[in-house]
Amino acid sequence: MEEITKLASKCRVATPHDVVTNSECVYTFHSPFTTEKGIVVNLTNFVGTLDELAFTNSSDTSSALFVRICKKRIPNENGEDETMAEPEAATKLGVGIDGGFASEADKYDIISKYSIAALQKGADDKAQVLVELPYDESTKNTFPMAVSQSADAIIHHAGLAVKQDLSAWELDDDPKPVSKYYEALPFVENGVKVSPNPSDWKVSSIGI
Questions:
Q1: Per-residue model confidence as pLDDT tens digits over 52-62
Q2: Given this model, what pLDDT does residue 131 score?
Q3: Could you give the 3-state DSSP secondary structure of residue 197?
Q4: Per-residue pLDDT reduced to its tens digit, 4-32
Q5: Residue ranges of the alpha helices (H) in 112-174?
Q6: Alpha helices of the chain — where are they, by DSSP H?
Q7: Which domain holds residue 16?
Q8: Strand order in 63-75's β-sheet?
């Protein structure tokens, strides 16, 4: 914990406006699911990388704190939900709804594991782990407040993931409303026909 405390003053708390790469390595596109070591996210600049690339383009520092994010997909034992039909039994064109297709989120449980790691740049510029401690609800209060606040902000940040929730979707078959002005809307024939070929388009002087 001593090494972590020494580096705590360098930690920053990510805001919604900060770019936080907590879902993949910025250099290799490895994700927290790829290996058992997951990715590490710098608690100062919020850049997610693999251990060996943690100090790439960071010549201004020889050590830093990171939150390690590891995730694993576990097949859901309750995946055979009667409300989520198999492709041949689906009665609606939709995902994650009654009678629709099952979404990927319904098929797996995601197990997440976090830790705080103090890494140091080695002679070959590759990172070496000075100390690494588990980070969860039972241990977060043992870390300096600056560290826990920074780690929580990174873990819960939307990152670069799509913010719109598409876990459930259904085709909208409802008829589109018709404007009450539609029937009385006059159509004026101006005699101008627009060519489908853009190279034939010219600026008109009519009405100028």
A1: 888 886 656 68
A2: 93
A3: coil
A4: 999 999 999 999 889 999 999 999 989 99
A5: 145-155
A6: 2-7, 104-107, 145-155
A7: 2-71+111-162
A8: 48-49, 39-42, 63-75, 108-121, 127-134
pLDDT at position 167: 53
Q: What is the pLDDT of residue 13?
A: 94
In a domain, 170, yes or no: no
Parts of the chain with a pLDDT under 50: 80-85, 162-166
Q: What is the CATH number of the domain that holds 150?
A: 3.30.40.10
Cα–Cα distance, 96 to 103 (Å, whole number): 5
For residue 145, tell me if it sits in a domain: yes
SS3 41: strand
Asked, for residue 129, whether it belongs to a domain, the answer is: yes
- What letter does residue 57 receive in the DSSP assignment? T
What pLDDT, on a 0 to 100 scale, did the predictor assign at position 77? 66
* Dist CA 171 CA 92 (whole Å): 8
Among residues 50, 24, 56, which one has the least CA distance to residue 37?
50
Residues paired with 74 in a beta bridge: 109
Which two structure tokens, joined as six digits, stand for 36? Answer: 């058992």
Measured from the Cβ of residue 3, the count of other Cβ atoms closer than 10 Å reads 16
Whose structure tokens read 């782990």?
Answer: 129
Q: What's the DSSP call for residue 13?
A: P
When divided into structural domains, the chain yields a total of 1
Q: Is residue 47 part of a domain?
A: yes
